[in-house]
Design goal:
Elements: H1 2-26, E1 35-40, H2 44-56, E2 62-67, H3 69-77, E3 84-87, H4 91-98, E4 105-117, H5 128-133, E5 139-142, H6 148-160, H7 167-174, E6 176-179, H8 193-199, E7 205-209, H9 210-219, E8 224-227, E9 235-242, H10 248-254, H11 257-265
Parallel strand pairs: 1-2, 1-3, 5-6, 5-7
Antiparallel strand pairs: 3-9, 4-7, 4-8, 4-9
Length: 274
């Protein structure tokens, strides 16, 4: 009888301990949510590598979403919780800052506009403007205002006016806005957007970032990637806005020598002083 009472007491003690254990676990601090990064689509491949290097060095977990910078800015304005915004221009982060989001806009990279041309199309940097103006050449761009790439393409068209009277209006009128808009068709999963647009022959010449051209050419080797002539050259300053101080470490890493080296390996130039 005595042994039975002892055994019963031990069993009850074990049950009490087992019941107490989940309470101890639930009282622990939950895992920290990942930092929410929103970045320009042109940064996707490079920034994924930057983020991986950041976390490997002990940085916080990061959840990244990419898209046209103008659309991302609108989502932030509409209340989406974002810690860090990396834009393909300075205007969108500066607009957010003026509206009370974040404290300082920092330039962190620079890009250039290039022309993607169909294989077999007879065009060089020197003859590019004449080719763009040719009536039988289909010109493609991204969507202005929604995507800075489209704004930069239209800026190049404005520069063309100094070379050929009427060129700016003609080019803007004929340009097909094929990417970067809220309703722009998406490429198949895992396929580069610009390689897809050109392979599907949606344009004969497409103006986009040189870094996009490099990535597209990896999938579509015959694709021509041309520098714009000096008279049409347009550069793109990329801006970084810390909205939540928890993301300051990631922002610092992006502008650090290691972060800049990764961006440079994808064709991005270091930021210029503004």
């Amino acid at each position: 009888m005595k042994k039975s009472l002892i055994a019963l007491a031990l069993l009850m003690a074990a049950q009490v301990q087992a019941e107490a254990q989940p309470q101890a676990i639930s009282a622990q601090m939950p895992d920290k949510p990942p930092l929410q990064l929103r970045a320009a689509g042109s940064l996707k491949t490079a920034m994924n590598e930057v983020v991986a290097a950041f976390t490997q060095r002990g940085g916080a977990e990061v959840a990244a979403k990419y898209g046209p910078s103008g659309l991302l800015r609108q989502q932030i304005e509409q209340g989406e919780s974002v810690a860090l915004f990396a834009s393909a221009n300075m205007k969108h982060p500066q607009t957010l800052k003026a509206a009370g989001f974040g404290l300082e806009v920092t330039p962190f990279a620079r890009n250039q506009l290039c022309a993607l041309a169909q294989p077999g199309l007879k065009v060089t940097t020197e003859t590019l403007l004449d080719t763009l103006l040719s009536a039988d050449v289909v010109v493609g761009t991204s969507t202005p205002k929604a995507d800075p790439s489209g704004d930069y393409a239209f800026a190049a068209f404005d520069l063309a006016e100094a070379q050929v009277v009427g060129a700016a209006e003609k080019l803007k009128a004929k340009a097909r806005q094929l990417t970067g808009g809220p309703d722009s068709p998406k490429p198949p999963k895992g396929v580069n957007n610009y390689a897809h647009v050109m392979r599907e022959k949606q344009a004969d010449v497409f103006l986009t970032y040189c870094t996009n051209g490099r990535l597209a050419q990896k999938e579509f080797e015959e694709l021509q990637v041309l520098a714009l002539p000096e008279a049409l050259a347009v550069g793109a300053d990329y801006g970084l806005l810390v909205i939540d101080n928890k993301a300051q470490g990631l922002a610092d890493f992006i502008v650090s020598p290691k972060g800049q080296a990764i961006l440079a390996s994808y064709g991005f130039a270091p930021p210029r002083a503004l």
